[in-house]
Design a protein that fits this description.
The protein has twelve helices and eleven strands. By secondary structure, the protein is α/β, with parallel strands linked by helices. The site of 6-O-phosphono-beta-D-fructofuranose has 10 residues, from loops.
Length: about 350
C-alpha cells in the first residue's frame, strides 16, 4: 500500500534531539509529497486520537530546542492489548498509513506490540540512557553527557576550593553509560555504575589514596542504577569523614540532564535517523528501528531490539580506573575482578593503554 499520510509521536522520557528529529520527519515527508500528522503525548495521544496536521510552519525554530513540541507521556494503558487496539482503531479511522515513533526502551516495547498488530511503523531510538541495542548512541545522549560534564567541571571548582569529596549522581535508569562516559570526559576520580559496582568501603579506600596523593578534591560519579545507591555511599562516607581526609558532599543532577539545546552532534544524528525512518517507511519497510552503528545507518527488526539488553563497555571502566589508580592499584568490583565481567564488545584489558604506576 502506498504511504500518503504518516504520523509521528514522541514517547517516554523526553530527550534533547526529539525536536530536530520531528523537524526532519516533517521536512522529509513534505519533500516526498506526504501529509504529516502530529500525535500529542505519545501513546496516550494515540489512544485519545489527539492528532493534528504538522505543516512546515509548525516546526519552525525547533531545531535548537530541547523537549518535544509533541509532548510526551508514559502511558500505562498502552501496555495492554485493549490500549493498543484503541490506538490502532484511531490510526485507521484517521486514514494514517504509517507511523514514526521516537522514544526509548519502553517505547520500543509498545512499538513492537503495535507493529505485531499489523500497523506499519519505524522507530527512532531516543533516550538519554543509551540503553538500546543495535545503535551506538541514542538521541539525547550527547547533549545529556555535555550537561553532566558541565556539572562536573563546576562542582570540581567548589570541591577543590573546600577540599571535598563530591558524589555526583547521574540519570540512566539501569544503565551506567552516562556516569561512565561523563566520568571519563570529566576526569572523575571514582566511577560507580550498576555494571561494575564498587563497595562503599572501596570508595573510601580510593578517596584515601587520592587524599594521600595531595589531591584537592575527589569527584565520585554515581549512576542512579548503582547499588547500594548514592545515598548509602554518602551516609557511609559521612560516617567516615575523619578517615576520608576530605569533607563529603553530594549532588543529584536529576532532570537537568533531560533538557537543554541539542548539541551539533545530536542535531545531525536526529536528522540522519529521521530521514532514514521516513525513507524506509515509505519504501514499505516496517517493524524496524533505525540506528547508527559505526557511523552508518542500520535497520534492526523490533523483535531483536526488544529482546536485547545493552550493557556498557567495561573496557572504558578499566581505562578510567587505570588512569586514576594505576594498573596494580586499580579498584576492583566486589563480585568479580573487572577483567572477568561480561563485556559488550568482548575483548579484555589487553587493549588498555599502559600508564605509569605512580600517579
Ligand atoms: O529514561 C530516561 C530517564 O530520565 C531515566 O534516566 C530516569 O530513570 C527516568 O527517565 C526518570 O523518569 P521520570 O522523568 O518519569 O521520573
Amino acid at each position: 500500500m502506498a504511504i500518503k499520510r504518516i504520523a509521528v509521536l514522541t514517547s517516554g522520557g523526553d530527550a534533547p534531539g526529539m525536536n530536530p528529529a520531528i523537524r526532519a520527519v516533517v521536512r522529509m515527508s513534505l519533500a516526498l509529497g506526504l501529509e504529516v500528522i502530529g500525535v500529542e503525548r505519545g501513546y496516550q495521544g494515540l489512544m485519545d486520537a489527539d492528532f493534528h496536521p504538522l505543516r512546515l510552519r509548525d516546526i519552525g525554530g525547533i531545531l535548537g530546542r530541547g523537549g518535544t513540541i509533541l509532548e510526551s507521556a508514559r502511558a500505562e494503558e498502552f501496555k495492554t492489548e485493549t490500549g493498543q487496539r484503541k490506538a490502532l482503531h484511531n490510526l485507521n479511522k484517521a486514514g494514517i498509513d504509517g507511523l514514526i515513533i521516537i522514544g526509548g526502551n519502553g517505547t520500543h516495547q509498545g512499538a513492537y506490540a503495535l507493529s505485531k498488530l499489523g500497523f506499519p511503523l519505524v522507530t527512532i531510538p531516543s533516550t538519554i540512557d543509551n540503553d538500546l541495542c543495535f545503535t551506538d548512541v541514542t538521541l539525547g545522549v550527547d547533549t545529556a553527557l555535555n550537561t553532566v560534564l558541565d556539572a562536573i567541571d563546576k562542582i570540581r571548582d567548589t570541591a577543590s576550593a573546600h577540599q571535598r569529596a563530591f558524589l555526583i549522581e547521574t540519570m540512566g535508569r539501569n544503565s551506567g553509560y552516562l556516569a561512565l562516559m561523563g566520568g571519563i570526559a570529566g576526569g572523575a576520580e571514582i566511577i560507580l555504575i550498576p555494571e561494575a559496582p564498587l563497595t562503599p568501603e572501596q570508595v573510601l579506600e580510593g578517596i584515601q589514596a587520592q587524599y594521600a596523593l595531595g589531591k584537592a578534591h575527589s569527584i565520585i560519579i554515581v549512576a542512579e542504577g548503582y547499588k547500594p545507591g548514592t545515598q548509602a555511599v554518602y551516609a557511609y562516607l559521612r560516617a567516615h569523614e575523619q578517615e576520608c581526609g576530605f569533607t563529603v558532599r553530594m549532588t543529584i543532577l536529576g532532570h537537568i540532564q533531560r533538557g537543554g539545546r541539542p548539541t551539533a552532534a545530536e542535531r545531525i544524528l536526529a536528522t540522519r535517523l529521521a530521514v532514514a525512518a521516513v525513507e524506509n517507511l515509505t519504501a514499505g519497510h516496517t517493524g524496524l528501528m533505525v540506528g547508527l552503528v559505526g557511523n552508518k545507518i542500520q535497520l534492526t527488526d523490533l523483535a531483536q531490539v526488544v529482546s536485547c539488553h545493552k550493557g556498557v563497555d567495561l573496557q572504558f571502566f578499566d581505562l578510567a580506573n587505570t588512569l586514576e589508580f594505576g594498573r596494580d592499584k586499580m579498584l576492583r568490583t566486589a563480585a568479580l575482578p573487572v577483567a572477568d565481567l561480561p563485556r559488550r564488545n568482548g575483548g579484555g584489558s589487553k587493549t588498555m593503554p599502559r600508564v605509569p604506576e605512580e600517579m
